[in-house]
Design goal:
The chain is an alpha/beta fold. It folds into 2 domains: 13-203 and 291-312, Aldolase class I (TIM Barrel), CATH 3.20.20; 206-282, no CATH class. It is built from 14 helices and 11 strands. The protein has an 8-stranded parallel sheet with strand order 1-9-8-6-5-4-3-2. A 3-stranded antiparallel sheet has the order 7-11-10, with no helix packed on it. α4 links the parallel β3 (66-71) and β4. The longest helix is centred in the last third of the chain and has 21 residues, at 292-312.
Length: 313
């Protein structure tokens, strides 16, 4: 497939693997890139030296394009960006912050920049900042999310009508059917997180992967909006959050409950009781733990079948 997204990144298929904390190491990123998509290393859960090591391992594992996801609110941000430049990474996805501060700096160094947004206002700011493409992430997504709770089906056409640069759809996308729907709404690529979190190469703990597979309809909920909105699997930690809300907990009390390392405990160390388990609504449609390359192939096969069926009618 050829469109503005495949040409922008130099990839075969317009499928981007989300740069998820604790799930998106070099093994997953290289596997997706080798399969024809775009793999992303999720730097948000990495110390600078770990990020450098992950980039170097990824370069050894693939000769295809890959990128790094960099949350703009993380404490080691400047070091992360310097490492990205020093190691020759040519694609950066930024999120959780203002793209205007770093987009120019990155582009001056020959880096393609994409920013993640959840509303039209920030999509327009991305255009003003000079990003090369936008990820429009709907309410269905796992991890950090928008406060507006706008669904992907509403968000994609709203943003696509307001910007001239390519739009990548995210949130609730884990199949070729969903990819086809996103393209019908104006997207030119899809970013897939949860489906890749539950793959062999994902750096998530096996217990977390199995919890994703076991999830059903209604197993997740968007919460903690007073801090940073996050969609969680409903476990004992989630229940503690709900109890805190019932007791009208302050922002400070919610921060204390969340503490440090809660996401690592859940997703990377496999504590399904006290850990923070970030995952999207599409978890209810995930029933296996395949290899990442198989996900790319199956999505494209299903997408092409859907488009062929639609055009035949």
């Amino acid at each position: 497939m050829r469109n503005r997204i495949t040409e922008l990144f130099g990839i075969q298929y317009p499928i981007i693997q989300g740069g998820m904390i604790w799930c998106s190491g070099w093994e997953l990123a290289s596997a997706v890139s080798n399969a024809g998509g775009l793999g992303l290393i999720g730097s948000g859960s990495m110390y600078p030296d770990i990020l450098r090591d992950q980039i170097r391992k990824c370069k050894l594992a693939t000769d295809k394009p890959f990128g790094v996801n960099v949350p703009l609110l993380y404490p080691d941000l400047d070091q992360h960006l310097e490492i990205v430049v020093e190691e020759g990474v040519k694609i950066v996805f930024t999120s959780a912050g203002n793209p205007a501060k770093y987009t120019g700096w990155l582009k001056e160094r020959g880096i393609t920049v994409v920013h993640v947004v959840a509303n039209v206002k920030f999509a327009k700011k991305c255009m003003e900042a000079g990003v090369d493409a936008i990820v429009a992430e709907g309410f269905e997504a796992g991890g950090h999310n928008g406060r507006e709770e706008t669904t992907t089906m509403c968000l994609i056409p709203m943003i696509a009508e307001q910007v001239s640069i390519p739009v990548i759809a995210a949130g609730g996308i884990g199949s070729g059917k969903a990819m086809a729907a996103a393209f019908c709404l104006g997207a030119e690529g899809v970013q897939v997180g949860s489906r890749f979190a539950a793959t062999v190469e994902s750096s998530a703990h096996q217990a977390f992967k199995e919890a994703i597979v076991a999830a059903g309809d209604g197993s997740t909920e968007l919460t903690l909006k007073e801090l940073t909105p996050v969609r969680l699997l409903k476990n004992e930690f989630y229940q503690k959050v709900q109890e805190a809300y019932k007791n009208e907990a302050s922002v400070e009390e919610l921060q204390e409950l969340l503490g440090r390392g809660r996401a690592k405990k859940g997703m990377f160390e496999g504590d399904l009781v006290e850990g923070e388990l970030e995952i999207g609504q599409v978890a209810a449609m995930i029933h296996t733990i395949p290899k990442a390359g198989e996900v790319v192939v199956s999505m494209m096969d299903e997408y092409e079948a859907v488009i062929a069926r639609m055009t035949s009618k």
